[in-house]
Amino acid sequence: MLKAYKYRIYPTEDQKELMSKIFGCVRFVYNLGLETKIQAYTAARVNIDCFTLNKQITDLKKDVTWLADVPAQSLQASMANLDNAYTNFFRGREFPKFKNKHVKQSFNIVQYASSIEQALSKKRANGFQIISMNTLSKDIKKLKVKK
Prior knowledge:
Elements: E1 8-10, H1 13-44, H2 50-63, H3 72-90, E2 106-109, H4 116-120, E3 129-131, E4 143-146
Antiparallel strand pairs: 1-3, 2-4
């Protein structure tokens, strides 16, 4: 059975700036992927999967250097979220919307999420103060940071 735990973190000003950068990069990649999917479907009735979009992120990082400052796994997770939303549209749900910074924002940390202590003490998330830390018996598979 899957369980979810919520923690409140109190980032420093530098960490807030880094998190804002990650939120922006994830939003940029998601919107670019959605635009790519829409253009491919309207032009040739082709659905581009998230693996193809992930390859395009690698090429995009060479041109857009500020994308290299954020975890690649967070960008890839946003492509997986987009792919799920696009697939759900064809199953009768709502069409995916473009993201903006005025609604709720989130990003996933996948690679370093084997434990909450490990995930929050890595280079890109170093030194967060965490309130109500419980000892967890199971390993964490994914860590989602929300604003």
